[in-house]
Amino acid sequence: FNGLRIIDVSQPANPAEVGSFSNFRYAHDLQLSGSYVYLANDSGGLQLFDVANPAQPNLLDTKNSAGLAWGVAIDPGRRLIGLADRYGGFYLYRQDGISLKGTVVQANGHGFAGITINSSAGGSAVSDAGGLFIFNEPALGPQILTPTGAGYSFLPASQTVAVPTGLANIQFVVLPEPVQANISNGGGSLSYTATNGVTTTLTVPPGAVSSAVTLVLTPTVVLPPAGHAFAGHAFVLAAYQGGSELPNFSFDLPVSITL
Which residues contact 119 (CB under 8 A, 6 or more apart)? Predict the structure, then answer.
């Protein structure tokens, strides 16, 4: 007779209560979907909680029924919630009007269009000119969002979200794919073109390496110093021989970078 209680059973011999929400009703039944709890709460009706932080369950919504909310079932794919009421019959609710939004941006923070975002729960969305993508009426519960685009890599490569509320800020940074080149004692170069159309070229002069190596250049993003803006050109450079990375590799002569 005290609402929702969350118990940590990671140690079965020593279960511990980590959070609760007191509403002075009998909690007859519940269903868990991702980080959301659907609770049949006697005369308190159907209640939806966000338990992403188990220590502080957050009541998101309540639907009252005519009698006593006794049992609950959910169909995440169709966003349906069924509520059995001891005296009032059966109620079927649908969570409409839900959307899952995010952005795809370049390394300089500007939006990027034409990137497809796939959901592990089914469906996809494409970023618009401002980088915005929207899933309308997505499936309920946890799902993985993965961006795809030929010739690009992404940070992060994927994100796990939970519907209905999802994340406050879902964002992917689009970057050119890594490039590589085999460099010998005679020198060489490798380059990539950023999403804003600017080409970065790394030139290795003759004599800069004593034996042949494979250089792999991976575009990335960095946090700018205070008071500055990141222009969108940063990369990680690694050297390999025989398929193994050379962690202490250094050039024998200075190399040049041209933007």
Answer: 100, 135, 138, 139, 143, 144, 145
